[in-house]
C-alpha cells in the first residue's frame, strides 16, 4: 500500500477514514467542501490502491488496519471480555438454547459464561464453534452456509434459511460500534442480516459489548440500544452516552480487576 499517488486532500480524507473506521461520502464532501462526485473518485482511487474498502455510500478501513484480523481482535481488551463473561454466567440458565453471534467479544465472554453448564449452542462462526469444541462442550451446532472472511464466518441465503426455522432462548449479539444516539452498528452486510434474524428468533436478546466499541462508527446500523432485553458492558462509557444508555431495558456491568 502507498499514499504517494494521493494529493493533500485525499491523504487527509484517508486519515479521517482510518480514525473513524467508516465515513460517508456526504460527510467527506461537507468536510472538504467538494462535490460528492469528487469524493467518490477519491474513494475509488484509494480502494484501487488498497488503502480503504469501498462501500455503498462511503468508505471504511481495511481488515488489515482498523478492522484488525480475528487473532489480533482476540487480544484487544481481553480482561474486559472476560469480565463480561462472568456477568453473563449469572444470566444463562442450564439447558438453554443459545445463538452465538460472530466476533471475539461474544466468543470470549460465552466461553467463560457456559463453563460447567449443559447448553445447546448454535452459531455460524467456525472460529467460535472450534473454540467451544476444544473447551469440551459437546452440544455445539453449526448453522451452515458459505464461508466468508478469515474468521470462518458462514453466511448467505442457505444460512439465513436455516436460521429462520430455528428458535432460541437467548441470542448473544456483538457489534463493531455504538454511537452516542444509541445506534448499534457493524460493517458486514451478510453478518448484519444474521444478527437481525437471530434477534427475531430469540426470546431474549443480549448485547455483549466491551468499552472499546463506544464512540466508534461503522457501515450500517442494525439495532438500537432499546431493542435488547439486556446489555452487558465491562465499564461505564463516556458521559456523552448517558442519554442513549437510559433507553436500555437493563444494563449490567462488571469491571475487570485492576
TrEMBL record:
Record has Transcription regulation as a keyword: yes
Database matches in Pfam families: DeoRC, HTH_DeoR
HTH deoR-type domain: residues covered: 6-61
GO MF entries: DNA-binding transcription factor activity
Keyword set, alphabetical order: Repressor, Transcription, Transcription regulation
InterPro entries: Carb_Metab_HTH_regulators, DeoR-like_C, DeoR_HTH, NagB/RpiA_transferase-like, WH-like_DNA-bd_sf, WH_DNA-bd_sf
Name used for this protein in its record: DeoR family transcriptional regulator
Naturally occurring in which organism (per UniProt): Marinomonas foliarum
Amino acid at each position: 500500500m502507498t499514499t504517494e499517488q494521493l494529493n493533500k486532500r485525499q491523504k487527509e480524507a484517508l486519515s479521517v477514514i482510518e480514525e473513524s473506521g467508516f465515513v460517508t461520502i456526504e460527510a467527506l464532501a461537507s468536510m472538504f467542501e467538494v462535490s460528492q462526485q469528487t469524493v467518490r473518485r477519491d474513494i475509488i482511487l484509494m480502494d484501487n490502491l488498497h488503502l480503504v474498502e469501498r462501500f455503498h455510500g462511503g468508505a471504511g478501513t481495511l481488515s488489515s488496519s482498523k478492522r484488525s484480523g480475528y487473532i489480533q481482535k482476540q487480544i484487544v481488551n481481553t480482561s474486559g471480555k472476560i469480565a463480561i463473561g462472568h456477568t453473563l454466567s449469572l444470566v444463562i440458565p442450564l439447558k438453554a438454547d443459545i445463538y452465538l453471534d460472530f466476533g471475539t467479544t461474544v466468543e470470549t465472554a460465552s466461553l467463560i459464561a457456559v463453563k460447567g453448564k449443559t447448553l445447546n449452542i448454535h452459531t455460524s462462526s467456525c472460529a467460535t464453534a472450534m473454540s467451544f469444541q476444544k473447551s469440551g462442550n459437546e452440544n455445539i451446532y453449526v448453522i451452515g452456509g458459505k464461508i466468508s472472511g478469515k474468521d470462518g464466518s458462514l453466511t448467505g441465503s442457505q444460512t439465513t434459511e436455516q436460521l429462520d426455522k430455528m428458535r432460541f432462548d437467548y441470542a448473544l449479539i456483538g457489534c463493531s460500534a455504538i454511537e452516542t444516539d444509541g445506534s448499534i452498528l457493524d460493517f458486514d452486510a451478510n453478518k448484519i442480516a444474521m444478527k437481525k434474524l437471530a434477534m427475531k428468533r430469540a426470546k431474549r436478546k443480549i448485547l455483549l459489548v466491551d468499552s472499546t466499541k463506544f464512540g466508534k462508527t461503522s457501515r450500517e446500523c442494525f439495532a438500537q440500544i432499546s431493542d435488547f432485553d439486556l446489555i452487558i458492558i465491562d465499564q461505564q462509557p463516556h458521559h456523552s452516552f448517558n442519554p442513549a444508555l437510559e433507553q436500555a431495558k437493563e444494563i449490567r456491568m462488571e469491571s475487570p480487576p485492576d
